[in-house]
Specification:
The chain is mainly alpha-helical. It has a two-stranded antiparallel ribbon. It has helices at about 5-10, 10-30, 50-55, 75-85, 85-90, 110-115, 130-135, 140-150, 160-170, 185-190, 280-285, 295-305, 320-325, 335-345, 360-375, and strands at about 70-75, 180-185. Helix 4 (about 75-85) packs across helix 9 (about 160-170) and helix 8 (about 140-150) crosses helix 9. About 25% of the residues are buried.
Length: about 375
């Protein structure tokens, strides 16, 4: 593979920036002796990106709020957006779910005054570090919501919705009152209210700081093994099923602020055997599900299915294979799953709800038929 071929596999903006820099570097080199550098001397090399093209990619918001667009959103407006697009993963009150860590909680009134969250200090018995506890620059929260949320449809929120959701999160953390409207005009004042605004430090050797006497040595020295490398480490030990619950359910032992990550020891482990599936509706529809794979891909992208489900392994929700095996003996499996896809639900596979999908009955039927075909494979 050539260097250019490898470059094309990177993100588009990397390619664009790389070509622009290469063009500028070539343009800055002196022309060959006796030859003037003009437009025809470098045919097909490209051109410098225009300010408008740069603005399309330059969307980050910095700690000094440079790049922050104009807009506003109230706490009450944020609650509406949150319930529709955020609560399914993060909980109505930011307490989150089995997978996602809590958003709000763990902050005292004294922290709002000092700007330093006491439960982050050494010696604290705080079991979970929430987003509001760690947040030291408000631009970080605004920028992340703007670029990455909601998980199944990032960058679909309007600017005003981002302001509103940010305001709602800060209200959950008792930082903003319920009648507050956050905007580009007052966000700097709100920054001064963050409970961990004075919590930033450079005492980690990630870059030179005064605390290291100007040392440039980082805290981690990494080197890639290129010759006579050690064999890959394979972990062969595991907790046997009969001992998984010897000390109680681990998933319930750190719940001061909502559930946190931890194995649910009341269920079989990943190594537990699963009964082999045979017969059922899945095999009967397997052939029908093979038609138009591109159409299925389009439906999965439309519903962002792969954001929460893996083909054969769990992500946030069950794998497609697990769903097919569970319902393989139901005669109405396709109709049942089609309805679940369209209306959503909660409780069958755990506490994390599945949001309703904006698919037509025919599209949901097609996905349901394909789902049941997974059991036959």
């Amino acid at each position: 593979m050539s260097r250019f071929d490898a470059l094309l596999q990177l993100r588009p903006w990397v390619v664009v920036c790389g070509l622009v820099l290469a063009t500028q570097a070539i343009a800055q080199q002196p022309p060959p002796k006796g030859q003037a550098l003009n437009a025809t001397a470098l045919p097909g090399i490209g051109r410098t990106a225009t300010p408008q093209e740069i603005r399309v990619w330059d969307i980050d918001v910095r700690p000094d709020f440079k790049g922050l667009p104009r807009g506003q959103g109230s706490v009450s407006q944020g609650e509406v957006v949150w319930e529709a697009k955020c609560a399914s993963c993060h909980g109505t009150f930011g307490e989150s779910s089995d997978v996602f860590t809590p958003i709000a909680g763990g902050v005292r009134a004294e922290d709002l005054k000092t700007g330093r969250v006491d439960s982050l200090m050494p010696g604290s018995n705080q079991p979970s570090r929430t987003t509001v506890m760690k947040l030291s620059t408000l631009s970080t929260l605004w920028d992340y919501i703007n670029r990455a949320m909601p998980w199944n449809a990032p960058k679909t929120l309007t600017t005003d919705e981002v302001y509103a959701v940010t305001a709602y999160i800060l209200n959950l953390g008792n930082i903003l009152p319920a009648d507050f409207t956050l905007s580009d005009r007052n966000i700097r004042d709100v920054q001064a209210r963050l409970p961990n605004r004075n919590g930033m430090t450079t005492a980690h050797a990630l870059w030179p700081g005064k605390e290291f006497g100007g040392s440039t040595r980082p805290d981690v020295q990494g080197s890639a093994c290129m010759r006579d490398c050690k064999a890959e480490v394979v972990v062969k030990s595991f907790m046997p099923d009969y001992a998984r619950d010897s000390h109680g359910n681990l998933a319930e032992q750190s719940r001061t602020i909502g559930p946190t990550r931890g194995a649910d020891t009341t269920r079989p482990g990943a190594g537990a055997s699963v009964a082999a599936a045979g017969g059922g509706e899945g095999k009967a529809v397997a052939v029908a599900a093979q038609n138009a794979p591109s159409a299925l891909d389009a439906l999965m992208r439309k519903g962002a299915c792969l954001a929460c489900h893996g083909m054969d392994s769990r992500v946030v929700g069950p794998s497609f294979k697990e769903v097919a095996v569970r319902y393989k003996d139901r005669s109405d499996a396709v109709n049942y799953l089609s309805g679940k896809i369209r209306t959503g639900g909660q409780g069958v596979w755990g506490a994390i709800p599945m949001p309703a999908q904006s698919l037509s009955p025919a599209e949901a039927d097609q996905l349901a038929v394909w789902l049941m075909s997974r059991e036959a494979k």
